[in-house]
Amino acid sequence: MKKRMGLPKAYLVFLLLAMYLPIVLVVIYSFNVSKLSSVWTGTTLNWYRALFRDRDMFEALRNSLVLATVSSCAAAVIGTLGAFGASRVKLPFSGSMEYLSMLPIMIPEIILGMVFLAFFSLIGLPFGMTTLIIAHTAFNIPYVFLMVKARLAGFDNSLYDAARDLGAGEVRTFLDITLPLIFPAILSGMLLSFAMSFDDVIISVFVTGVNTNTLPIKIYSQIKTGVTPKTNALCSLLFAATVLLGFLSVIASRGGKRQKNKKTEE
Amino acid sequence: MNRGRRRSSVIAVLPMYLFTLAFVLGPLIYMLFLSFESRSGQWGVTADFTLRNYTRIAEPLFMKTFWNSTKLALISTVFVLLIGYPFGYFMARLSKKWRSVCMLLLIIPFWTSALMRLYGWIIFFRANGVLDTLLMKIGLIDRPLKLLYSYPSVVVGMVYVLLPFMIYSVYASAEKLDWRLVEAARDLGASRFGAFRTVSLPLTAPGIFSGVILTFVPSMGLYFLADILGGNKTILVGNLIYEQLMKIHDWPFAAAISVVLLLLTSIFLFAYRRITKSDLEGLV
């Protein structure tokens, strides 16, 4: 059948351009001399310079990095072990437990924010980095879990059995056989949850303390109260970081696919 | 060996189950309790049992918010479906190399802060902003449209933020589609559209379902979107919850609204699971 793809391709290109339009606008206006983003008065790097002098901004950046790193690592450990265990044993309540564990990414985020706010103040946990990390770990676990689970579904059990027959212990087998095979899935789950955590504003607003700002919270309040091109500069730098992260994850998943292909060839 | 395997598996799932019990189930149960309690003083809550929070939701003011929010969610979902379905479908027909290029190009904006992307739309929509200047230059309009803080700009923002979910879902099921079936239908005399309607559309229906769920469910809670693009109007149930929590400090009422919202979304999720009997496709 002859594929007529002219029009469809034009549609794909058009929509992709539309998706990048707001991002491009933000980046362009970060070089604008004028403080008002509606008029263009010339190019400057001043906003970037101002950004690098802003102490609060670095504080928020540091918080966001710590938060995203800790919560995605915690989710990687908990989610991977969870998916691994769940794939091998059926407990009487494991179906509903699994459903509950996935809830944080299935219900509207605002509900999660609300319940965390109420719950943390009930148990008297001081709002700040600790509460942020717990909340973010809760919605990061599902991403890792689902990715690792999908990977384990096509897992060859004979490898595992062979290792066990040859006398390796449970832990040793997991570390030597299972972990290397599912590692690409863990890595892409982690990257995804890192991105989600780094970007989250809905839940963070509820569970953060008065003195703990993350970058999205800071940007949100700036957009609400009045933006300067400094916000554009910050967003542009974040965008550059995202592009980098995107490429890294592609490389990671390429590695995974290659491994998978090798396995099917053998 | 079998027992050792069982034991180690149980130990492996334990952290996740404990975490879920403590920080997902626990908070949700507390929310349920809270919704039956009543507010006291500036911040406090009195432990009693009342249905007042729920009957308050039935008041016209709050019902209107629920209705408007649902309406906005429906409008956005329809647009997302109409725009996103062809994209996911066409994307699945590309060659392997172009498919992965396309996927990367999609992932990057999706991973870019939603705030930044919405802020870009502010620049685009604001009075005398990019859109106004452009339209005035080509002479379509002679004065600024002032689209920012209007309903259309909220819909655009909503569609824009939620579009990737639909595209992924449709793409995930279109990718698995056996195109030989479409060819067969064409060979047997079906028109281009006929083949699409009888073969492709039913086979990609699961993707449509999960796309609709993934669009509709979060759209009720995106309070910051309505806040940024819609001005300070309370348009979404999410804004209502946010206000009750952070400004009015009526936690029990906020909890009751959340319970109702949770029930509404659960109905959708449940229906979805019954229809497709699977996890959310294309979610990750």
Describe the structure.
The complex is a heterodimer of chains A (266) and B (284). By secondary structure, chain A is mainly alpha-helical. Chain A has one domain: Orthogonal Bundle (MetI-like fold). Chain A has helices at residues 6-29, 46-53, 55-88, 94-106, 109-122, 129-153, 157-165, 170-199, 202-207, 215-225, 229-265. Chain B is an all-alpha fold and 284 residues long. Chain B has one domain: MetI-like (MetI-like fold). Helix content of chain B is 75%, strand content 2%. Chain B has 13 helices and two strands; from the N terminus they run αββαααααααααααα. Chain B has a two-stranded antiparallel sheet with strand order 1-2. In chain B, a hairpin with a 3-residue loop joins strand 1 and strand 2. Chain B is globular and about 70 Å long. Chain B starts with a helix and ends in an 8-residue tail after the last helix. At the A-B interface, helix 1, helix 3, helix 4, helix 5 and helix 6 of A face helix 1, helix 3, helix 4, helix 5 and helix 8 of B.
- Quaternary state reads heterodimer
Q: Work out the count of structural domains of chain A.
A: 1
Under the CATH scheme, which class of chain B?
A: Mainly Alpha
How far do the termini of chain B sit from each other?
34 Å
What's the CATH class of chain A, please?
Mainly Alpha
Quick one: how many beta strands of chain A? 0
Q: What is the number of helices of chain B? A: 13
Shape of chain A: globular
- What's the SSE pattern of chain A? HHHHHHHHHHH
Query: What would the average pLDDT of chain A be, to the nearest integer?
Result: 85
The biggest beta sheet of chain B, please?
Answer: 2 strands, antiparallel
- Alpha plus pi helix count of chain A: 11
CATH topology of chain B: MetI-like fold
* Strand element count of chain B: 2
